[in-house]
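Appendix B, example 12.
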Amino acid sequence: MTVPSMTISALMHNATARLAPSYGSREAAALTDEILLRLKGWNRVDSIIHGNELATQFLADRVDATVDRILNDEPIQYIFGKAHFYGMDFNVSPATLIPRQETAMLVDMIVDRYGKTYDLNVLDLGTGSGCIAIALARHLPFPSLVNAVDISPDALNVARSNALALNTRIDFVNADMLSLPDLSRKLSANYDIIVSNPPYIARHEAASMHRNVLDFEPDSALFVPDDDPLIFYRAIAEFASSHLAPDGGLFLEINPLFAKDLTALLCDFGFTSVDTFKDLQKADRFIIAYR
């Protein structure tokens, strides 16, 4: 534990040593770097420069308390209310999922295809923290319209704070994507891009998931019924069948367990080009579909 005479370097070493048995040495070091970034505003280089300075007892206590919370499985993103995504810092809360690397790959796919196209209409269904919509608003050249939908008012409050902090213009809409009449009434545009990372984890998969997800991230943004795992994708496909521009693209993050079933569903809704793409773990994680 910490003592008043401990240097910054020793403080970081202690924190990493406490975290390593649970997270491995590399992840533990990254967590310690994140703690110093959030508590002191220091990046890794800054922490090395200040390494021989004595840590105050206040800082030492806060580092210890943060490590305690992490060891109790609380995600560091919720501890500090911040998460990195697509080169930006996003506000997050237990009302929103923590943005993940896979979702950044989905944004990459869209930017790669549309990064030189102007005046696009973009729709993000199930926006959560707003990370997808905001990343697209900042990396597509002057989109005409970016709509972002979520059923949770609390999530939309977080998303609005992110749009304001990151100087992006997003039109946020409080709506249930499973209620298509309401969704169509609130969203009258045709969209060049419809993107979604909806709930897609089957309820039975919870048995193999870690506490830091189950106990802290919003259940409603994670899980779908075992007897209808494509419930959100069916609604998205139906909405897209009437609101996607003729040359528009549908971009989805998916559960690898249901990739084939989802491909068939999209074909049933009139999509003639449906391609599946893998994530870094070589799992089927994305579908891009055109009519």
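DSSP finds twelve helices and eleven strands in the chain. The radius of gyration is 21 Å.
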